[in-house]
Amino acid sequence: MKHKEYIGETFQEAVEIAKSELGEDIVIIESSEVESSGFLSGDKKSYKVIVSKASAESPEILKKKNLRKSVKELKIIDSAEDEIEFDSKEAAMRGTVYIGKELNSLNRYIKQLIFPELPEAYQNIHDRLLKSGMLRQDVQFYIKESFIDLNKKTRVTQNKVLEAVKNKTKHLFYPGRFTLDKPGKIIKALIGPTGSGKTMTLMKLAMHPEIFGKKKTAIISTDCYGIGANASLKSFTKLTTTPLAIVKNVDEMNQQLEKYKNHDAILIDTPGRSPYFPDYIKELSSYFNISESIDPILVLSSSQDVHDILNYYKFYSKIALTGVIFTKTDETARLGKIISVIKKIGLPVDFFTTGQTVPNDIKSGTSDFIWGKLVKYFNSENK
Ligand SMILES: Nc1nc2c(ncn2[C@@H]2O[C@H](COP(=O)(O)OP(=O)(O)OP(=O)(O)O)[C@@H](O)[C@H]2O)c(=O)[nH]1
Ligand SMILES: [Mg+2]
Asked: For ligand 1, is residue 331 a contact (CB within 6 Å)?
């Protein structure tokens, strides 16, 4: 049979029109958008499908018949569920695997009917971003945006798509209050979950020549819990001859801030606590309410799951945060999650930390840093 063309507002509609004329068993030869191809955009648009009536034994018909058969079989299994008695665990397993496989193929089929396939370059970048830890809804958002930015062209290279996504995320990384030439004294307080890397990051900040290494800096710790508290800070400050004060309450904090008022920078370390520790946030907030010039910075570990990171943010956002530092970027290959986190929380990224060497393993919080790592990871996967 000759090929015929059908047009609808959606791909599905065009297919339905074709089916109403030619019957259920049709083969879609080609599908495209009329005027502008828009399977990724939400604009109003038309779709053209070129179809042919399938011969009774064409692969498409056989595939569909098999699928229908599978659905029928599934129904039989479903209705007979109570009657089935598996002889052994193995038989039960076989049944489960069979149902799983059938459901998967059904799922794929339905998905394909609803969402026609993405062009190859977009699909590849889509899959890589997903694998990089970026949340699914963000991957879909950036792929759609890149499609629009590339003038809805379907024949583009992966590099072009990647560049478009990169450009779309650039604005998420902007400088916050961590300007080193800020007039007056700089006071930064590092807060965050237990073991996220607050103390080590503070030492890097204090010692790095391009951060506070060449400035007159003092350190205050509010960690007065336990015998080992501040052990690493004590050794560090001894080695670097940086003054260290340990405070137990707001009054003591006030005294120390006054004492170091002529220093260029004061760095405040805080103990990590479980979010459920009683009065933890209240206690932390009391220190920051002393002065508006204290900048609380949230320190989060990149090696944690994206949902855990977002939960921590939710908890700490009760404090007026001025920035975020992501530590342990060397411990995960899934740095796409950082883009999702930043997109959600909107805080400036002050720094990334990249290892356990003080002071070198700290880098500016730029989008180039994240993308440099992501592209390296994509390339290594290609090998
Ligand atoms: N691989 C890697 N390890 C890091 C990094 N930053 C910190 N760490 C390690 O993470 C562990 C915890 O670091 P700390 O600085 O003690 O963390 P903390 O947030 O001060 O911990 P608490 O005060 O107990 O809440 C230590 O073993 C650090 O060496 C980093 O960028 N990369
Ligand atoms: Mg610590």
From this structure: yes
